[in-house]
Amino acid sequence: MTFSKDQLLPGEKVALDTCQSWVVLAKALLLNVASAAIVGTLAYQFGAWPLLFMAFPLAVLGWEMLSRRREEYIITNRRVVKQEGVFTVHSFDAPLDKINNIFHEQSLLGRILGYGSVGLETASEQGTTKFQYIPDPVGFKNCIVRQREGYKAAPEASAGEDVPKLLDQLASLRDRKIISDQEFEEKKKRLLEKL
Question: Quick check: 32 and 98 in contact, CB under 8 A?
Answer without folding.
Answer: no
